[in-house]
Structures are given as C-alpha cells and as structure tokens.
C-alpha cells in the first residue's frame, strides 16, 4: 500500500474528510463522485499527528479548517490545554500560509460541530485568497462525530470551547480559571480520559456521548455508531459533490486519518495508534 504522499501528489484542491475510513468510503462514494480510488496509508492516526507529520516546512496553501487543531491562533499543539494531549511542537501558522478558522466562524451550537455548508461559505467568501494560493485544502469535520442527524455533539464542542478559552486567556496575558463546565459531556469526558487513559472503556465512553441510549440497546455500540457514521459521510459527500462541480483544476478527496469501532480494542481515534482502521484512508482523484 502506498503512503498518503499528501503534499507530494499533484492536485489543485484537496478535500480532507476528517476521520474517514477507507472501507466505508469505498462502499458509498460512487453514489456521489466519479474518479480513481486508491487505499493509502496516512501519516498519523489523529489530526494533530497527521498535521505534524504532513506539513513539515512552509507551504503556500489556503487551508479552510473545520478542525480546531489546525488553526490560525499560533498556539503549538503541545501547548493546547484542552484536547490535544501530544508533544508535537507544531502550529499551523508556522507551516501553512493562510489558515481560515471555519471551526470558529462557521460553528453551529445546535449541532456541536462545523456543518459542510460552513466550509462552502468560507471558501466562496475568500475567493481572492484561493486564487492567490498555489493550492487549496477544504477540511470538513465529517464523518467525524458528532452525527449531524442527532445534533448536540459533545466531544468536538468541548475541544472548540477549550481552545477558545485558551485563546482569550493568552490574548489577555492571564490564566482563566476553568470553572464548572456546562454540559454532561464536558464533565464526564476529561475525567474518564484522565483516570482510564487508553483503556477500551474510556474510549467507548467518548463515543457513548454521541449516541442515543435506545440505539445502543437495540444495536450495540459498534452497529449504532457505524450507521450514524456512514450517514455523516453521505451528508458530507453530497455537499462535496456540489462544490467540486464548481472547481477548475485537479481535485483529490482524502482523509487525515480513519476511525476505529472496537478493532483491537480501540474506539474513535488516538495519537500514534497505527492500526489499519485509523491509518487506511481513501485517495480519490476526481474525474
């Protein structure tokens, strides 16, 4: 299997689908897009690792980011106080010429994430930057949870809020006390992760926050999550297909990493967990 070779490959526009598994993508993409599909091996099993290992010099890219870890704040990943948990001394502003924080400007509080239409709006609003850059990346949050048909996503919401709080604290040169967080997910997730670390139970707990209890009882965690995950991917692909029809140039659709649903005891995605469900990603050269 070929390495992803994200920057070494030829493209004008690259659509990054966050946490998109190759196998699920390969089963549904032909309903929305035409092109040549390959399975490639990503550089990382999570967004921070992928970004750190992919963008290792300065690149003339207009990057529309629905993911808070790739941002225009200039805060290194290893200094993010919420959600990253890594040692990578990397920030997007040191490596990418123009990052648009769609995770901030296009955030939907009801969904707890950045919907596809926010990426499209930011892209169209900043057409001059797109024309000036050598290449353009559109980083969609889907099929990454939360699942759009359910709304009220918790995991990404807590990361987004945490980064915002850190940005505000650093801009005012004073530490902001964390205080009581507002949602059940904000309260449970960090406690579970800090106490159980990499255990399967801790990983499942994060996913449970995004699922409906009745779905879990009826179908089990894996089946319930996979059904909603595929639905999230289809929503994203429908939006991507509409946008791609307007683009003039070579277009590639890929992912930063995949998503695990219990394989080898792993759930969701985690830094430096190099198993096939997390590392095998699609590489579709669109016709």
TrEMBL record:
Keywords: Plasmid
Biased composition (Acidic residues): 169-178
InterPro entries assigned to the protein according to its UniProt record, in alphabetical order: Alkaline_phosphatase_core_sf (IPR017850)
Organism domain of life: Archaea
Region (Disordered): 159-189
Name of this chain's protein: Sulfatase N-terminal domain-containing protein
């Amino acid at each position: 299997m070929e390495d992803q070779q994200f920057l070494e490959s030829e493209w004008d526009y690259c659509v990054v689908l966050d946490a998109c598994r190759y196998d699920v993508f390969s089963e549904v993409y032909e309903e929305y897009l035409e092109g040549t599909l390959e399975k490639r091996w990503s550089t990382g099993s999570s967004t921070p690792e992928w970004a750190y290992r992919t963008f290792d010099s300065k690149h003339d890219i207009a990057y529309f980011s629905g993911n808070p870890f790739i941002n225009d704040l200039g805060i290194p990943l290893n200094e993010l106080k919420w959600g990253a948990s890594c040692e990578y001394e990397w920030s997007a502003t040191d490596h990418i010429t123009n990052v648009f924080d769609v995770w901030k400007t296009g955030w939907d509080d009801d969904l707890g994430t950045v919907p596809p239409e926010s990426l499209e709006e930011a892209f169209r609003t900043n057409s001059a930057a797109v024309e000036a850059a050598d290449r353009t990346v559109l980083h969609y949050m889907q099929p990454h949870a939360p699942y759009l048909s359910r709304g009220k996503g918790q995991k990404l919401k807590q990361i987004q809020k945490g980064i915002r709080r850190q940005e505000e604290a650093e801009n005012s040169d004073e530490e902001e006390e964390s205080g009581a967080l507002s949602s059940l997910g904000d309260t449970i997730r960090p406690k579970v992760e800090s106490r159980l670390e990499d255990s399967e139970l801790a990983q499942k707990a994060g996913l449970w926050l995004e699922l409906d209890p009745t779905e879990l009882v009826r179908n089990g965690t894996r089946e319930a999550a996979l059904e909603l995950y595929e639905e999230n991917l289809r929503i994203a692909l429908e939006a991507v297909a509409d946008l791609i029809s307007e683009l003039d140039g070579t277009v590639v659709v890929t992912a930063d990493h995949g998503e695990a649903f219990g394989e080898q005891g792993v759930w969701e995605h985690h830094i430096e967990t190099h198993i096939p469900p997390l590392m095998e990603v699609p590489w579709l050269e669109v016709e």
